[in-house]
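explain this:
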Amino acid sequence: METDKGLLVVLASPSGGGKTTLIQNILKSADADYVYSISMTTRPPRNGEIDGKDYWFVSQDEFMNKVKNNEFIEYEQVHDWFYGTPRQPIQQWLNDGKIVLLDLDVHGALHLKRRYAQKSLLIFLQPPNKQALLQRLKKRSTETSEQIARRLERLPEEIKQADQFDIIIVNDDLNKTVRKIQKIIKKRDNQFQRMEV
């Protein structure tokens, strides 16, 4: 029987859905019980991204070696690059009773839910519309038009899977969305702690 008391809070959305910005804002006002799980990726850093802060950037060989050694809770290939959630810190945080925020794609989120059904809360961030998503992707100026088009191709499939999440939030106002998520986490965490007693 598992004894860890932590909670995994997964924020997933289509590319450009605002996951990273939301997590940064939640962490600003959060207490020490909140931690952020940094994913590992084979993609090169975008302008301004820092290794060990935004992602752990590794070569494909190193990533595949970790897959072989079962060092990820989940991993996915998204748009030519691999992304994975390192197992060791997640287990430690769960044991320590932390609220762990994860920024995952839809498939990674559902994979994690299958593994940690009782310890996870999955929140799907739905863009207000396709146009808003397109504007966000263009605004961050990190991808070519072709890369943006490929990301948008996945949109119908990702939206379709939203009903497998615990909560769906339309992310049309940053501050409002942050407050909603904080309220949901608090409510779920309180229920979870009562359930564990």
The chain has a mean pLDDT of 84. Helices lie at 19-28, 60-68, 87-95, 106-115, 130-139, 145-153, 155-160, 174-196.
